[in-house]
Design a protein that fits this description.
Order of helices and strands: HHHHHHHEHHEEEHEHEHEEHE
Number of strands: 9
Mean pLDDT: 84
Number of domains: 3
Length: 312
């Protein structure tokens, strides 16, 4: 079922400028409309057509910077009048399309999104990151991943993947990515509580995805913090869960999964990390929190991490 969901997400992304209906999506997937509804209920926090409307608006927002007329962009994404487009845009981004487009001149609801340009700015972004992630190991004086020293090296390689949103001179949100083979991994992302539900977090991801495409990357991966599952689901990210244990063997982790008798859980890989950490990769819905609890609390001696990804 997860594989079907991923195919539908790709199909929607490739046909955003066309009329997308539930019937068309169901015909493409080879399932009934009821089954498509059920798939989205499992894997996202919104109905399928709500997801389609959001993705159309995210794509339209990207085109506001191209110089095209607002009316033409609205028509491309299925809005017959600028007024209808304006209202829909306002609900998602918390500002008008004009304010979004002219964010360098406005200091109202929408933030500027900029990339880190020097070490001084990087340090300010790292200071902000400590606020959102108080347990982050940024201050470690070593080459360990995600230490300050490590981020300096990452900045020197791909500064365009370390972004921040600001209002005036105040940093309000960040997204910090780095290239990992043909993919971009997002280590930290988030916004201050006062700036939630204004489209800022979404805009940071849109900008990072566009930059990842220009670098020739094929996907974006993010480790999910508790409570953020719905946000990533709305953006079209699908999930994998990494189960790790030093006590239980890979076969024991697999045996426990089989005992649950849930056909939605698909094993996508296994590994023994550093010779003693047994790992099991599963394709799961990022909204499914029960499996994490089962491994960590019922089986015990396990720790889990939800990783979400998206093809771009």
């Amino acid at each position: 079922m997860a594989a079907v969901y991923e195919e539908i997400i790709i199909y929607i992304d490739e046909h955003l400028k066309e009329e997308l209906t539930l019937d068309k999506i169901a015909e493409f997937a080879g399932y009934s409309t009821w089954h498509i509804y059920k798939i989205f209920k499992i894997y996202t926090a919104v109905p399928v057509m709500t997801y389609v409307r959001r993705k159309k608006l995210y794509a339209a927002a990207n085109e506001l910077y191209t110089g095209r007329k607002l009316y033409d962009i609205a028509l491309d994404y299925g809005y017959e009048t600028p007024a209808g487009f304006y209202k829909a845009f306002q609900r998602i981004f918390g500002c008008s399309p004009s304010d979004y487009k002219n964010n360098n001149e406005t200091r109202r609801e929408f933030m500027n999104i900029e990339q880190v340009k020097n070490i001084e700015e990087l340090n300010k972004v790292l200071d902000f990151t400590r606020i959102i992630y108080p347990n982050a190991r940024i201050d470690i004086e070593s080459d360990e991943k995600y230490s300050s020293k490590w981020w300096i090296g990452s900045f020197e390689k791909n500064p365009e993947l370390i972004l921040y949103a600001k209002e005036g001179e105040k940093i309000c949100g960040i997204i910090m990515g780095w290239t990992d083979g043909e993919s971009v991994t997002v280590a930290y992302d988030g916004i201050l509580a006062d700036y939630k539900n204004k489209g800022i977090h979404e805009a940071l991801f849109i900008e990072l995805e566009n930059r990842a495409k220009k670098l020739g990357c094929k996907g974006v991966a993010v480790g999910v913090s508790e409570g953020k599952e719905e946000f990533y689901a709305k953006l079209g990210y699908t999930g994998s869960m990494l189960v790790q244990s030093e006590k239980h063997s890979v076969d024991e982790l697999k045996k426990y999964l089989a005992s649950l008798k849930n056909k939605n859980y698909e094993i996508t890989g296994t590994n023994v990390y550093d010779g003693y950490v047994n790992q099991l990769w599963l394709r799961v819905s990022i909204l499914d929190k029960d499996l994490k609890k089962k491994y960590e609390e019922e089986l015990g001696d396990c720790w889990t991490q939800i990783i979400v990804g998206k093809s771009i």
